[in-house]
Amino acid sequence: MSADRADELRGAARVAVVAAMTVLASFVASKAARDAILLTNFDVEQLPLFVGLSAALSLPIVLFAGRLFVRFSPGRLLPLMNVASAVLLIGEWFIARTEPRIAAVLVFLHLGSFGAVLVSGFWSIINERFDVQSAKRYVGRIGLGATLGGILGSLVAERAAVYLEANAILVVLAILQGTCAFVLRMLQTEGPVRRPAPEVLAPLASVRMIARTSLLRNLAFVVVLGAIGAAALDFVFKAEVVASTSEGMLRVFALYHLGTSVLTALMQMLVAQRVLRVLGVARTVGTLPLAVTGFGLAAVFAGG
User: Fold this and answer.
1) pLDDT tens digit string along 162-212?
2) Half-sphere exposure of 72 (CA within 13 A, CB side)
3) Residue 271, domain CATH
4) Mean predicted confidence (pLDDT) in 223-230
5) Which residue of 2, 96, 154, 167 sits 20 to 30 Å from the alpha carbon of 263, by its own alpha carbon?
6) Which residues contact 87 (CB under 8 A, 6 or more apart)?
7) How far apart are CA 17 and CA 6, in angstroms?
8) Is residue 224 assigned to a domain?
């Protein structure tokens, strides 16, 4: 590798770390905001309905965005998507001033369906920007930046809950997403976009690939079961939050995300590598359902 190429990659890695921080800060802050705004305007019993609507809306958006990323490059599209999302947030902020319930639904569906696309699109940019060898060298730093971004996003939401009016968090999120667009634009590579094979762009190509590959089917099964379990735990947690506080939910959710982000960072730095070496990937993944089952049973017998 030439010295110029090495310098270019080091500079791109520094930008990627900052991008990871801003993207994850926006994502985590948006999760706290969307839940707080919705549960301020609707009963918690209605939350599963909105989660289902958000999931149903997410599916076509994810499929369509994936095809656009393959055809036109995530480095070109993602900054535009962040700008569009920021504009929507400003519009939702204006609506919230007169129609808070309508705005709450729009915010929840918007952030619930766009959030995963914006985060996965960022990692697609990293995959596009760095070759395999460079990715091995820098992905750890980028991952650390993402973890720190989760902590930063939690702090931003918590401070906004303290110092700003309730719906002003939407303006804060718009600023964060505008910042994401600016930083991601700096990661864009020049030159022609690699055109994929026609079969990659075929409708439902990914579904057919999963159906043909046993490993992918098993992974999909694990992901679906994990998502169901996470949704159930999420509902129980939010029901407890609503039952214990009638206002200030944004701060509660922000502090919750702050705690989980800090715990994630500590686990990554102190435990993850050791557990992977001892147990391997499959058994390490298996510790999650075991932990959920164990803590769930403990909560039942403790009367929680």
Assistant:
1) 999 889 999 999 999 999 999 998 887 655 555 555 555 555 666 677 777
2) 12
3) 1.20.1250.20
4) 81
5) 167
6) 174
7) 17
8) no
Q: How far is CA 16 from CA 129, 156, 199, 217, 278, in A?
A: 9, 21, 31, 32, 31
For residue 121, the model assigns a pLDDT of 87
Query: What is the rounded CA–CA span in Å between residue 181 and residue 172?
Result: 14
Residues spanned by the domain of 97: 3-189+240-301
Question: pLDDT at position 2, please?
Answer: 62
| pLDDT of res. 280 | 80
User: Is there a domain that residue 195 lies in?
Assistant: no
Helix (H) or strand (E) holding 166: none
Q: Among residues 188, 200, 206, which one has the least CA distance to residue 73?
A: 188
Q: Give me 275's structure tokens.
A: 């557990």
pLDDT in tens, 61-81: 887 887 788 777 888 889 999
Residue with tokens 């991008």: 19
Could you tell me if 181 and 82 are in contact, meaning their C-beta atoms sit under 8 angstroms apart? yes
Q: Give a yes or no: residue 148 inside a domain.
A: yes
pTM attached to this predicted model: 0.85
The answer to whether the CB of 22 falls within 8 A of the CB of 147 is: no
Question: Do 183 and 15 meet the contact criterion of CB atoms below 8 Å apart?
Answer: yes
Query: In whole angstroms, what is the distance from residue 284 CA to residue 296 CA?
Result: 19
Report the pLDDT value the prediction gives residue 135, as an integer from 0 to 100: 66
Contact 225, 231 (CB under 8 A): no
Residue 136 within any structural domain of the chain: yes
Burial of 297 (0-12, 13-18, 19+ CB in 10 A): exposed
Nearest to 85 by CA among 50, 66, 109, 59: 109
Among 156, 176, 300, 288, residue whose Cα is nearest residue 227: 288
Rounded Cα distance, 119 and 6, in Å: 26
- CA separation, residue 83 to residues 58, 118, 291 (Å): 19, 11, 39
